[in-house]
Amino acid sequence: MRAIFLDRDGVLNRPVIREGKSYPPARVEDVEVYAGLHERLQRLKERGFVLIVVTNQPDVARGTTPRETVEGINGLIAREIPAIDRFMVCFHDNNDGCDCRKPRPGMLIAGAAEYDVDLERSYMVGDRRSDIEAGIAAGSRTIFIDRAYREPPPTQYDYRVSSTLEALTIIESESEHEKS
Do 46 and 176 contact (CB within 8 A), yes or no? Predict the structure, then answer.
């Protein structure tokens, strides 16, 4: 089995940008899912990919966002992109020392175990360095969506693209190539 691990904010939905940095929407009403993802992800699911969202949401630990808001946003995205199999969320902050917070690969490893996924044949799609580092640590192929945030980008990745649809096109094309 193969998986596509997807970060949430900046990959599935438009993030809030303040001073060049990416933040999750503060309210469910503010969520804007990127156009075209529903159809493309459904097609990839039909080709046998498991679709797992892996997202760090430290604002819950910081007390600035209620857990219900994060779950509400995940619920809205799940309704707009029903092909998604699972949402995995790390609610911890940087200093909590958990295994799930990206750049650690805990969520990818747990998702792979749950769905019997071959990590080497899977993909991590993210818009931040921590996403890509988690994918590398898990042994997956990585696709960096460069949204030109004012933060250090990853230094290693398999592909660098400018949109989620471009990332999904690469995965589709590679899966076609592997079939033939």
Answer: no
What is the Cα–Cα distance from 146 to 168, expressed in whole angstroms?
A: 14
Overall number of domains in the chain: 1
Q: Measure Cα distances from 158 to 1, 23, 28, 52, 136 in Å.
A: 20, 25, 33, 19, 9
- Is 7 catalytic? The answer is yes
Q: How far is CA 164 from CA 38, 67, 95, in A?
A: 12, 26, 30
| Res 176: pLDDT | 83
Give the CATH number for residue 99.
3.40.50.1000
Mark whether 9 is an active-site residue: yes
List 9, 59, 127, 131, catalytic entry: 9
Task: Give the range of the structural domain holding residue 74, as residue numbers without chain letter.
Answer: 2-179
The mean pLDDT value of the chain amounts to: 96
Q: Residues 81-126: pLDDT tens digits?
A: 999 999 999 999 988 989 999 999 999 999 999 999 999 999 999 9
Q: What is the pLDDT of residue 180?
A: 63
Read off the pTM: 0.96
